[in-house]
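Hi F.,

I've been meaning to write this up properly since the lab meeting, where we talked about keeping a consistent format for the predictions we share between groups. The idea is simple: the sequence comes first, exactly as it goes in, then the structure tokens exactly as they come out, then a line or two of notes. No screenshots and no reformatting. I'm using this chain as the first example so we have something concrete to point to.
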Amino acid sequence: MKHLVAKIHPADNVLVALTDLPIGTPVTWDGVTVTTTEKIPAKHKLALHDFAVGDEITMYGVLVGRMAAPVATGGLLTTSNLKHATNSYQEGQHPQGWAQPNVSQFAGRTFLGYHRPDGRVGTANYWLVIPLVFCENRNIQVLEEALVNDLGYARRKSYQPQTQALIDLMQAGKSVEEILATDLHSAEVDYQKPKLFPNVDGIRFLNHEGGCGGTRQDAQSLCGLLAGYITHPNVAGATVLSLGCQNAQATMLQ
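Output, unedited:
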């Protein structure tokens, strides 16, 4: 038989209706039968016994409220007859032990990197293009299409030679079996234009869907994230696009 109610925790003194319960519906849980005295909507709670003003209500095994008005067995608990309450609590302190690791094995070792003005060390050198608001995403896309290839930062494989090889085989009257048996890997071309700025490893375009339409706190969080990218030691600098009317202002990013 399908259950009409559920008891979340053995210590609870209320039941949760799993479906709409009309007045006069008998429900049973753990051998105890309760008849609803009023309509109980699905997901609402009904009293397992009579409650007086001030009685504690337990759910999930913890105190969740105290009665503000009396409710009979099988009655509906609502915000009008139940007030929020909790057990006493306190914030605990859990000190974390930390031992400095032994770094002697790295003594005298070096790696290919360089110091940024703030003292941090980078191992790459990227330029970022970032919008402060999602309205600039289209402009970011246009810039990416216009710059990446011509500046030498687009790495792609060209399959045109392979296509031409297949065309040549077909025009030469080769059979399907001969065409399928042909090794086309020799026709692959891994193409990349020379970088205009050899000391810049790449350009990254960081689109997003924020910057406006949310709260000021959302804008602050976004600017904090973008600032983290910009100030990363592997980033040389950034081009920032702004409309000027959005929540995420340039001053906030700074």
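Notes:
The longest helix spans residues 216-230.
Helices lie at 137-147, 160-171, 176-180, 216-230, 250-253.

If this format works for you, I'll send the rest the same way.

G.
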